[in-house]
Design goal:
The chain is of the alpha+beta class. Helix content is 49%, strand content 16%. The strands form 3 sheets. The chain has a 6-stranded mixed sheet with strand order 1-2-3-4-5-6, sandwiched between helices. It is globular.
Amino acid sequence: MTIANHIEKVRQGLREGKFTSEAAVSQGILLPALHALGWPVFDTSIVIPEFSVEGRRVDYALCHPENRPSVFIEVKKVGLSEGADRQLFEYAFHLGVPMAILTDGQEWSFYLPGEQGRYDERRVYKLDLLERDIAEAKSRLDRYLSYSNVCSGAALNFARSDYQNVARVRIIETNLPKAWEALLKDQDSLLLEMLAEKVEDLCGYKPDLDVCSQFLEMQSKNNKQIDKYEVERKPPIKQMKPFTPATNTIHTRTIDNFNFVFKGQEFPARSAREVMTKLFQLISKEDSRFLDRFASRKHGKKRRYLARDKHDLYPNRPDLAEQHSVEVVAGWWLGTNYSRRNIQDIIELALEVAGPQLSNATKANVL
């Protein structure tokens, strides 16, 4: 199997939530990728699993020559690689290994531990297999991780050249406005919560997350309107349309407005959160592995939509865990502190994980 074919297969598996553990990521993603990149994965003097470093272990050491590590690889469960780079750097520093890779199967971070700066500043490149196209993913894996490039030293030279490339600064400057626009458009739940809490700090009243969602949507529209006038070189807009929260439309929807259909049967719900909760319960009854697969998917920037422990839903926010979580089935907790737009995204992710048969038999729109 070529590396491009493997990447395509992995992308499909990630979308379906098939990789539910570190072992699944290692055996289903990493080792086949190394094999496709030319590594003799069955030669344990070259691809060494659980390489020992002062009584601790690195998941994999890629060696050239035999038994001499050139690359360390640390594997994490999908969505749980945050913060694992420090441990990996300590291992690499101890033995002078020039390149280190941290992956959860979906995201691959390539590091040069010997360079200067914070851990994140020594990252050469971050590859997300679901965000990048297959050609780009293939190119980067070949560049930094193919057996021939590592053995010849080309992989390390490529990494150092890319690290020093001043074009990164220009790329960052170009993408900062796009990133801000994406934050406004995507409305990550953390951004909504931060906005709501800041309003509460200023006036003593905490707005509903849907009100915050409406505000961000208005800001995005205003930004686009300003950009349009700047491109056309017309006089600047003197006053943008003021924001008026449509609270009357948020709190006056009837039960019928939230009805949803699952496998041909209509179910009532009093809120978007109830639609989401009922849908998770119904799908889990049809598919006993659904919750495990959904939990293995990458969720929000810092939050988990679904977890075994409700405190994992909102890291460092036990207040939110107590007030805004529901046990959908025994032993599984679902976060509910989301706007309707966020909930719609979670529902669509759930249907993607559930598969086409259940997805095609479901109609659930809370917007």
